[in-house]
Design goal:
Blueprint (H helix, E strand, L loop, with lengths): L5 H13 L2 H15 L16 H5 L2 H19 L4 H4 L1 H10 L5 H18 L5 H19 L4
Helix pairs in contact: 1-8, 2-4, 2-7, 7-8
């Protein structure tokens, strides 16, 4: 079980309160698909993902980016039980979608970059530490079914 300090909880909640899901989610997923092109194989049904311009203008990519952030929102609202909160998602990604579990970390890194750019100087080392801890717990929960 992960122990969260009051400061960590406050940092995570503050980040989410300032997030525009319709902007940050798509930007993070777009970045992941562009920077790590092998991740595109899981999105074959999304149509044209042949180059950065196509990815950036793809409405299915944008919509799924929003879905991802709403999924993270669930983790934020259940910080004391992220593992069980994500149990079904872990099974889905492992057994049905066959997603390489390393891709969760790659997407988390892309989201961190988007959030850091959005927050600017208020994305301090302490805020980043809390955010990275949160994402590490989320990624671990998503990887759970793979073990």
């Amino acid at each position: 079980m992960v122990v969260w300090t009051d400061q960590e909880r406050a940092c995570i909640q503050d980040i989410f309160s300032k997030l525009n899901y319709e902007v940050a989610g798509p930007k993070a997923l777009q970045r992941a698909l562009i920077v790590y092109p092998w991740t595109q194989r899981y999105f074959a049904s999304f149509g044209n993902l042949y180059n950065a311009e196509a990815i950036m203008s793809n409405p299915k990519v944008a919509a799924h980016g929003v879905v991802v952030l709403h999924g993270l929102d669930r983790a934020m609202k259940n910080m004391d039980d992220i593992k069980n909160t994500y149990a079904e998602l872990s099974v889905l990604h492992s057994e049905k979608l066959h997603v390489d579990p390393d891709n969760f970390r790659l997407l988390a890194d892309c989201l961190t970059i988007v959030i850091a750019a959005n927050m600017g100087t208020s994305f301090t080392a302490d805020v980043q530490a809390a955010w990275q801890k949160f994402l590490a717990v989320v990624v671990s929960a998503l990887r759970r079914q793979y073990h």
